[in-house]
Design a protein that fits this description.
The chain has 454 residues and is an alpha/beta fold. The chain has helices at residues 2-11, 18-26, 30-34, 44-57, 63-86, 93-102, 109-128, 138-158, 178-182, 186-189, 210-218, 240-249, 266-272, 290-297, 305-310, 325-338, 372-377, 379-399, 422-425; strands at residues 193-199, 227-235, 276-281, 301-303, 315-316, 322-323, 343-348, 407-413, 432-440.
Length: 454
């Protein structure tokens, strides 16, 4: 063995900065390397920027500055990677602060393990990287620059631009919404109340047994006795807020850069037609600034975690802790049956946000769907389908309630499940989400469903 090592070592140029490549290039960017075979978001631009920063910081005389700089690169790259995966604006400090205070990722075993691994690497960087000796020749700078370029090229080869994560829409991208496909307008519903349900992480399955489980939940034959049922799919891009504005305001623009004053959003159109408009979401009211921009779409009544708690909706755990979606149907039923005006209700669900943890309050402590082999191979997917099944059952109870007035119900996914595992992610369409439209069959109109002339 020594006879092999010595010849190999003798071939390495004396000025080759191997320790710098390991300590300043690979370790601070370790999240990118670890995710190549799991998710693989392309990060070439970030690698080039962090590499240049590392090249400068590694030459600073102060060890304290080198330590802070190395850990700063590591933390920044990790935050930007996670933000790109989930479609979160990393430079929006208010949103980042909300995630830190409201979201509980360590409740997920997968996220907890990832956090532990990253903590270990942070300690390794703190101990090793500042000790890397500074460059003493121009040749070392040249080698370092080449290493940065090669690292970026490797990232381009191992990562994939699409197929994982929630890529935001391209500028000027055409809108394809379920609302447009079904022709949902005040005139079309003719005075009936309307319920739009945007289901968190409701993806379009493309493999078995996911397709069969999905169809059993979302294409129930007894719905035909009361509704004309249509199904289909539409293109999606970006995270949940993009899905909201896609369906509510027919736009691909992010909520913090959208001119609501010039928009013709769906809730506003129903409000002008004499409808009472309501938004329901089981999470914190300030998350993604929804209390500010929801009213700008025409949603006048807002019911979030606090309001639903006061209404008796029990708490559900998860990485996004809030109220239980399966109990929200009772709140909606009360509003639909007791109001003297036609209703437009927008419900954004919560509990099916991936990864769905094993939890008693979510009903996911034990997965019983599909085959045993599938449950063992894709436990995260199975738990998510269990949560969707519970939600579908609660919606079924609502839409089939004997005393429910005529209501048109549109159920649509916001985006596909954001799963880190490529094999699990590949079981869903990468760019389409499903929708189900239940149009109330004609029967005697209730007295509260009179459409104001437009």
């Amino acid at each position: 063995m020594p006879s092999l090592v010595i010849p190999l070592a003798s071939r390495i140029p004396p000025d080759f900065p191997a320790k710098w490549i390991i300590g300043w290039l690979l370790l601070p960017n370790i999240v990118i390397v670890l995710m190549w075979q799991i998710a693989g978001k392309p990060m070439q631009a970030f690698i080039l920027i962090s590499g240049i920063a590392a090249l400068v910081l590694a030459q600073v005389r102060s060890r304290a500055i080198r330590t802070i700089g190395a850990l700063g690169i590591f933390v920044t790259i990790s935050i930007f990677y996670v933000a790109r995966f989930f479609g979160i604006p990393p430079l929006n400090l208010a949103v980042v602060a909300q995630f830190i205070t409201e979201v509980r990722p360590l409740r997920s075993p997968e996220y907890a393990a990832a956090g532990a691994v990253m903590a270990v690497f942070a300690v390794v960087i703190w101990r090793i990287t500042p000790s890397v000796e500074r460059f003493h020749s121009r040749t070392q700078y040249l080698y370092a620059a080449v290493a940065i370029g090669l690292f970026a090229m490797l990232d381009a080869s191992f990562s994939q631009a699409k197929g994982v994560g929630l890529q935001p829409p391209a500028i000027g991208e055409k809108v394809d919404s379920a609302v447009k496909q079904v022709g949902l307008t005040p005139a079309a519903v003719q005075g009936r109340s309307v319920l739009v349900i945007l289901v968190e992480a409701l993806g379009k399955p493309v493999t078995s047994p996911e397709r069969e489980i999905f169809n059993a939940d979302w294409n129930r034959t007894h719905w035909n006795s009361r509704y004309t049922v249509q199904t289909g799919s539409n293109h999606f891009a970006g995270s949940t807020t993009f899905g909201e504005l896609r369906e509510l305001c027919d736009t691909t623009t992010p909520y913090d850069n959208f001119d609501f004053a010039k928009a013709d959003c769906l809730p506003g159109r129903f409000a002008k037609a004499g409808y009472e408009t309501t938004a329901i979401h089981s999470f914190a009211a300030n998350f993604f600034d929804r209390t500010t921009w929801y009213p700008k779409t025409g949603l006048h009544n807002l019911e979030f975690d606090d309001e639903l708690r006061a209404a008796g909706v029990k708490a559900c755990q998860g990485i996004f802790p809030g109220r239980c979606d399966v109990d929200v149907g009772k709140v909606i039923h009360k509003r639909l049956t007791q109001s003297d005006k036609p209703q437009f209700i927008y419900w954004l669900t919560l509990n099916t946000h991936a990864p769905v943890i094993a939890d008693e309050t979510l009903g996911t402590q034990r997965c019983t769907l599909g085959t045993e082999q599938w449950r063992y191979g894709f436990p995260v997917v199975c738990r998510m389908f269990e949560a969707h099944h519970a939600l579908a059952d609660s919606i079924d109870r609502l839409v089939m309630a004997p005393d429910l007035p005529q209501v048109d119900i549109l159920i649509v996914g916001d985006h596909r499940p954001p799963l880190f595992d490529r094999a699990a992610s590949a079981r869903f369409s990468q760019d389409r989400v499903p929708w189900i439209y239940l149009r109330a069959r004609d029967r005697a109109k209730p007295a509260n469903a009179q459409l104001r002339s437009l």
